């Protein structure tokens, strides 16, 4: 994956995203849509996973068939909203190892504060996909990637639902080696660091909190 930012403009992704943005969409519907959209985005972010081949017998004949090379994969959820995307990717790649980064955003400074970190072993050998629906200021995303690199990761991708130009710029500056896949590059952030037009607080919308 060579581009720093990939916006997946597939009609199914865009349709589901519109439903998610609508403030009338219920919590359960929001969660379901997030899981579905994540699987479509995961299709894009995993498209360069290495294949090898294996010999199988179809009902017709023997064939040499492609199969994942079994390179280790780690999914890392950036808490708490990342968990809404994690399930979707895990359904596609059930054998992936899972890590968690707990960061909350100080509402005054908009800076990330770490409260939890747990990563699978041998991060240096893994393709690491970090998931967080909202790339807003980019501060917490960049801090999460810092932690993953400190844990040894060298091959990292970032999967989000919405990105703000400010967040993309921050990630490009801090981690130009980490490609980003998203469903939309939105217009801007507001003064509180929320994405416009956005969809509001992703965690609140998926967990029904306020
Ligand atoms: N986090 C969210 O949940 N929503 C935003 O718009 C920005 C950050």
TrEMBL record:
Binds 1 Mg(2+) ion per subunit. The magnesium is bound as Mg-PRPP. Its cofactor is Mg(2+). Keywords: Allosteric enzyme, Glycosyltransferase, GTP-binding, Magnesium, Nucleotide-binding, Transferase. Uracil binds at residues 195, 200-202. It catalyses: UMP + diphosphate = 5-phospho-alpha-D-ribose 1-diphosphate + uracil. Pathway: Pyrimidine metabolism; UMP biosynthesis via salvage pathway; UMP from uracil: step 1/1. GO terms for cellular component: cytoplasm. 5-phospho-alpha-D-ribose 1-diphosphate binds at residues 80, 105, 132-140, 201. Residues 7-209 form the Phosphoribosyltransferase domain. One of its GO terms (biological process) is UMP salvage. InterPro entries: PRTase-like, PRTase_dom, Upp_B, UPRT, UPRTase/APRTase. It comes from the Bacteria. GO terms for molecular function: GTP binding; magnesium ion binding; uracil phosphoribosyltransferase activity. It is an enzyme of class 2 (transferase). Its EC number is 2.4.2.9. The keyword Transferase applies. Allosterically activated by GTP. Catalyzes the conversion of uracil and 5-phospho-alpha-D-ribose 1-diphosphate (PRPP) to UMP and diphosphate. Belongs to the UPRTase family. This is Uracil phosphoribosyltransferase. It comes from Epibacterium ulvae. The gene is upp.
């Amino acid at each position: 994956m060579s581009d720093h930012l990939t916006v997946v403009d597939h009609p199914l992704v865009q349709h589901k995203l519109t439903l998610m943005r609508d403030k009338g969409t219920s919590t359960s519907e929001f969660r379901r849509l997030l899981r579905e959209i994540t699987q479509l985005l995961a299709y894009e972010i995993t498209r360069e996973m290495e294949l090898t081949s294996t010999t199988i017998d179809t009902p017709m004949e023997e064939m040499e068939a492609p199969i994942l090379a079994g390179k280790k994969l780690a999914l890392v959820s950036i808490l708490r909203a990342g968990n809404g995307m994690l399930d979707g990717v895990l359904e596609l790649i059930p054998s992936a190892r899972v890590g968690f980064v707990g960061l909350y955003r100080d509402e005054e400074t908009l800076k990330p504060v770490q409260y939890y970190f747990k990563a699978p072993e041998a991060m240096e050998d893994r393709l690491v996909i970090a998931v967080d629906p909202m790339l807003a200021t980019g501060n917490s995303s960049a801090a999460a990637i810092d932690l993953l690199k400190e844990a040894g990761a060298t091959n990292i991708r970032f999967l989000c639902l919405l990105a703000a130009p400010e967040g993309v710029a921050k990630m490009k500056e801090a981690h130009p080696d980490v490609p980003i896949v998203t469903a939309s590059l939105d217009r801007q952030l507001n003064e509180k660091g929320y994405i416009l037009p956005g969809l509001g607080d992703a965690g609140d919308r998926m967990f029904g909190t306020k």
